[in-house]
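hiii so um. not sure if this is the right channel but i have a protein structure encoded as tokens and i wanna go backwards to a sequence. like what aa goes where. can anyone help
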């Protein structure tokens, strides 16, 4: 999330539980509030983060796009050429889920959206990246784009604490097909959804549908 000021840009990565709220300057500080930016009109932007995983950087306006961290961020799924992405995957032996979480390869996919993407693509999260076929790569990019667009339309995904700056919870959690569904029947094959660890991340998978 970017905030453009007169000469600077604030680059924010909210991670798991970071939230921004627009409030009157005089309103009291939240228990987990870490940053307060006061504007000349009397409003203030507050950054609240229960787990303190988020990061805020102040960058020069002239070069914030060409210097880290933004210079290291890959394009989003709809902007990626499938053949080029396939070639990148062929150089990796890490699980495909780990690759999709790497913002240097593909931007915008967190743990929840990778689970949903791989389920739609029928690809096992533990598959080595260099074992994924070109056709599967195309389907992964298409599915990722579909998931991100739907999540954006519904205002994000509220699993624990996420809400917008206006205090509105996301609704994409109501559309989840596999994430958080441990022990429930798969909507496709009725097999039990399992939870495993991939790259240290909790991962939901249907071992019958995903290969």
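sure thing!! here u go:
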């Amino acid at each position: 999330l970017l905030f453009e000021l007169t000469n600077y840009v604030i680059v924010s990565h909210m991670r798991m539980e970071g939230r921004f709220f627009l409030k009157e300057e005089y309103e009291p500080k939240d228990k987990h509030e870490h940053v307060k930016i006061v504007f000349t009109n009397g409003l203030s932007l507050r950054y609240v983060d229960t787990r303190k995983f988020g990061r805020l950087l102040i960058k020069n306006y002239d070069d914030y796009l060409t210097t880290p961290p933004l210079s290291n961020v890959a394009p989003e799924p709809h902007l990626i050429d499938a053949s080029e992405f396939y070639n990148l995957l062929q150089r990796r032996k890490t699980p495909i889920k780990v690759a999709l979480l790497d913002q240097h390869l593909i931007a915008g996919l967190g743990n929840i959206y990778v689970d949903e993407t791989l389920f739609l693509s029928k690809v096992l999260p533990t598959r080595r990246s260099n074992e994924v076929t070109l056709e599967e790569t195309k389907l992964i990019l298409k599915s990722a784009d579909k998931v991100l667009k739907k999540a954006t339309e519904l205002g994000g995904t509220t699993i624990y604490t996420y809400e917008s700056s206006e205090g509105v919870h996301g609704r994409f959690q109501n559309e989840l097909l596999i994430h958080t569904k441990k022990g429930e029947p798969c909507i496709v094959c009725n097999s039990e959804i399992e939870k495993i660890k991939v790259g240290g991340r909790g991962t939901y998978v249907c071992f019958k549908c995903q290969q």
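oh and The mean pLDDT is 91.
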